[in-house]
TrEMBL record:
This is Cytochrome bc1 complex Rieske iron-sulfur subunit. The cytochrome bc1 complex is composed of a cytochrome b (QcrB), the Rieske iron-sulfur protein (QcrA) and a diheme cytochrome c (QcrC) subunit. It comes from Streptomyces luteoverticillatus (Streptoverticillium luteoverticillatus). Its cofactor is [2Fe-2S] cluster. Residues 238-333 form the Rieske domain. Keywords: 2Fe-2S, Cell membrane, Disulfide bond, Electron transport, Iron, Iron-sulfur, Membrane, Metal-binding, Oxidoreductase, Respiratory chain, Transmembrane, Transmembrane helix, Transport. Belongs to the Rieske iron-sulfur protein family. Residues 36-46 have a biased composition (Basic and acidic residues).
Length: 350
């Protein structure tokens, strides 16, 4: 049955759209247009609007408090503390607190913005014709006028409580990300400046695990040592040896160019950090004739006969030297820690 066969009295009443189109017997599917606008309670009742304003402000304030809680949890809660959360089970207290506070902070900003838009900003729908991508001056002027009108209808300038609490919440939330930068590594304190070496500790051969005597180190040989009292069974051995690793070379005293190196040596035996000062690779390649050691990672080259100074490559400074002596029992012994922090340079160095 066609639309012409339908009695006209059974057709729905004609409705006009935003541009005057109406549904008739000839065209029953015409665009019905936008429904009539219905005012919200906040549009006609200022007290209701103020209640909505307070709700939004409360959400923004709650976001700020959650951000402060995130920072407090990050600083105060230990990493190894766990709590029981039903039905998950035992989880990290720090992770739980960080996730909860950051989630609340972000949710409250979003919920506050949505509630603001749904209850206080203008909700009148406008139909507009499509226009070319390149707008005409009239369209540009209309857009600017619409933007100004939208700014006024958003009550952004008039409702200072909303504006100020929103700015506060948005200003605090990025602090959560700033605090997470701390996870790039623990604060080193003085750990980078100290190693396991100290006065009176004997030099232990890393291969034989026996104390070293001067006669154990031959001229032109390279020997690796570690501090007395350190064992591979220690839970933090790798962490400690990464800073305390030592290489020992015996030179003829007349071949030592640097006076400090000569004073800090024992019977021509010089001791330097094994850790490259570029990116911390272990140095292990020794040239007997030139007294140079080469880092295998980026070819930084150091002269052990001249204070461990850099003669080639990207390393920024000389290898730290360990002052040694021969003790009463005839063993090589450290007279303190390295002359300066071992490994790569960092901004606090010096």
């Amino acid at each position: 049955m066609s639309s012409q066969d339908i009695p006209e009295e059974t057709l729905p009443a004609a409705q006009g759209d935003a541009h005057g189109a109406v549904a008739t017997a000839d065209d029953p599917f015409a665009d019905p247009g936008l429904p009539p606008h219905e005012h919200r309670k906040q549009d006609i009742d200022e007290r209701a609007a103020q209640r909505s304003e307070r709700v939004v402000a409360f959400l923004f304030l709650l976001s700020m408090l959650a951000t402060v809680g995130f920072i407090a949890a990050y600083v105060s809660l230990p990493v190894d503390k766990s709590i029981y959360v039903f039905p998950i089970g035992h989880i990290s207290a720090l992770n739980f607190a960080l996730g909860l506070t950051l989630g609340v902070a972000l949710f409250c900003i979003g919920a506050g913005a949505v509630h603001w838009a749904r209850t206080l900003m203008s909700d009148v729908e406008h139909a507009d014709e499509r226009h070319p991508i390149e707008a005409s001056p009239e369209v540009k002027a209309k857009v600017l006028a619409d933007f100004k009108a939208g700014a006024e209808e958003s009550t952004f300038g008039r409702r200072k409580l909303l504006r100020n609490t929103m700015f506060g919440a948005l200003a605090l939330v990025p602090l959560s990300g700033v605090m997470l930068l701390r996870d790039l590594g623990p604060l080193p304190g003085t750990k980078l400046r100290k190693t396991a070496w100290s006065e009176g500790k004997m030099l232990i051969n890393q291969n034989t695990l026996q104390p070293l005597r001067p006669e154990d180190v031959q001229v032109g040989s390279l020997t690796f040592a570690m501090p007395e009292g350190m064992s591979e069974e220690d839970h933090d051995f790798q962490k400690q040896i990464a800073k305390a690793a030592l290489m020992i070379v015996r030179l003829r005293p007349e071949n030592i160019k640097d006076k400090k190196s000569l004073d800090w040596s024992a019977d021509g035996i010089v001791a330097y950090s094994k850790i490259c000062t570029h990116v911390g690779c272990p140095i292990s390649l020794y040239e007997q004739q030139t007294h140079h050691v080469l880092c295998p990672c980026h070819q930084s080259t150091f002269d052990l006969s001249d204070g461990g100074r850099v003669i080639f490559g990207p390393a920024g400074h000389a290898l730290p030297q360990l002052r040694i002596k021969v003790n009463d029992k005839g063993y090589l012994e450290a007279m303190g820690d390295f002359s300066e922090p071992v490994g790569p340079a960092y901004w606090e160095r010096g």
